[in-house]
Fold this protein.
Amino acid sequence: MRLTSSVWPNRILFLSLLGAFSLLTREAATASAQPKGTPNGAEQETSPSAALRAAESRTAGGQAFNYAGASSTETRAAVPYLISLGADGEEGSTESLPLKELSAKVEVAGVVAKVQLKQLFSNQGKAPIEALYVFPASTRAAVHAMRMTIGERVVEAKLARRAEARQEYEAAKKEGKRASLLEQQRPNVFTMNVANLMPGDQIAVELTYSELLEPEEGTYELVIPAVVGPRYTGGMDAGESKWTGNPYLKSGTPVPYSFDVKVHLEMGMALKELASPSHPIEVKYASTSSADVTLPDAGGGDRDFILRYRLADKAIEAGLLLYEDPTDGGFFALMMEPPPRPTAAQIPRREYIYLLDVSGSMRGFPLDTAKELMRASLGSLRATDTFNVVLFSGASHVAWPKGSVPATEANLAKAAALIDGQQGGGGTELMGGLTNAYSIPKADEKTSRSVIVITDGYVGVESQSFKFVRERLGEANLFSFGIGSSVNRALIEGMARAGAGASFVVLSKESAPAEATKLRAFIEQPVLTNISMEVKGLATSEVAPEKLPDLFARRPLLVFGRYSGPLKGSITVTGDSGGPFKKVFDLSTLTPSKKNEALVKLWARKWIEQLEDARATRQSPELEEAIARMGLKWKLLTSQTSFVAVDSEVVNKGGEGALVAQPLPLPQGVPESAVGRASGYYSMSRQKTLPGPATTLDLLPSESPPWRPEKATCGRVELSSKGSAGANTQVLLDELATFLKTKHSALCADAKASGATELTLVIDGKGKVSKVEAPTDPKLAWARKIARQLKGLKLSARAISGSGGRVVITLAIGG
């Protein structure tokens, strides 16, 4: 068996090595609901690689991709909104906040972390309720157990196919039984429903997951995500976006539940530099190689908990980890030490395209941090490098659309001025930004192009972005920077994985220069190319990744796989690193260890990750079925499997009870604009009907180019809408707003005009405004002028189906 890397001259594989790998013993598997027709309740064996091949053959030739439209029948997706805490009994009262405690107990052994996440729900009101809580977890989490505790009774959850688990939960709720349901919405976003929470009840729901901690430059990082940031829903499928409508507390509101983390580290060698950049911590050392970490205060639930540590021994061994299961056979994980770096003369010419998010959720701390990051990164460019800058919010802007420019002082100064002028506003149309970035003409094929995305990731188009980047894998590497205290790590890490790059998270403005330096170190020097892994004498199967990617990275690339038969033969890794590179692992000298039992879950999680990524790029029943079977076989939560726990006692005949969505705190440093107009919707009460999309813009002087901060004195214009043109309406409004910024002479010609009116836009299947119906009132002559300017406008906001339609927009102008 031989694995090789795809050969693109601008993409390099950097293998780094892991430290001591002492793995935790997995917990006893919970009972699993099996599909009908499966003999003896045992899940049939699944071949994930076969499912991938079947999906690829089904979709050979690819499919057309339109970033703007979500669904021809969609009118609007679910959206977040702000609420205020009031007195008991009033809207937004503390009685309606069922979550009382969020805590994590973590055990780290070597590079594997086992996490027990506990959520304590309590009904302090006077009527039964159903609690809904949206919460995050690590993107690498393999969730394999859940239990529900009511008083002294403990109910172990079972794993079932998603639809079956939901049906069982709804039936139990209707019967008046206490029940809980855990569903995956994204790899790092879950929802918990708790039914029939009676007055005075306290129900604890615990879920257990394991994850692999991968070091970067010898530094390990444990992340316990604390809150899901608000998502911009432009381009999302309405059926998959309901969870994004969760309410958020107003900025400055204290976190209404306690947050606590306890970590025990048991390493095989001495610890050093143990610290948290996110929370104050207390550390007690049991020995030089073990420690206990706690939070002095049960707070800080508005930001991710991050713990970083290093090991005293810098000489980390490369190796091959092995585990054999009596029923399922052998599993392995391969890790390698990187070879020496090549000389500067061997490095190809480089081009950097910076794609910067300047949307409303980036306003303030995130955008200030992004500017600092950009300044540091631009300042480190070599004179032989070329670069470009793309800004995106509701629309996007390319600084040099004809092609990237040399990193001269004059060009760098222009870029700095452009970036410094941004204030943040509008939606977060990531796909439009990606489209423009990848459309920039390339000087030649020998230049190594890197796209660097800088965003908080508060969008819901993860699958679309992964598809877009993966389909263009030969055109550029992609590196992603997530900025903020609770970034969307699934997007940040997923884009980097799809683009064969690396991801970074910048927690503060002060850490931006250091992260920019890390990026430079990752991408300025190729380490290993033309990678090939050959196995001799050992029967291996289901090796992940199937294709070794080319990466710029100082962190490990692990290869997981299964084997059968006697352990013999060798694994040889070869490549180029300014000369031939070769590393041989002699299997006859190795012995499987029971301590490595977690390899089973990690191998399965790796394959599920690949199947989920593939599912994001194509519609395939084979992939959904393979994900479901993998989840059921290996007892793991996936997009196709859920955990459900049902108590036997009937406590609420009829099952009547109000649904209470637990409001989330805004992540630290995120402004209210991320929930309000920047997302297209705004409401202070969930009892009110949510208005349609809306966009507000400050009019710019006619001589000013777009994306500059100068403002005119002719007032403001607000756009809102009703109806749909078969497109995502918020995208349409943002594009119209951007158009009016440069074509607004009708408004500025009559600065005293004020009022509001409606325009009906007829949009054809290609996104062109073919007709605009305007009012005939002489007092609204300014609206007719705008209508004439809008006619013929070509929009990208059109449905995937290519159908057109009509949309009514309201223009409100005022001083």
Summary: Residues 599-617 form the longest helix (19 residues).
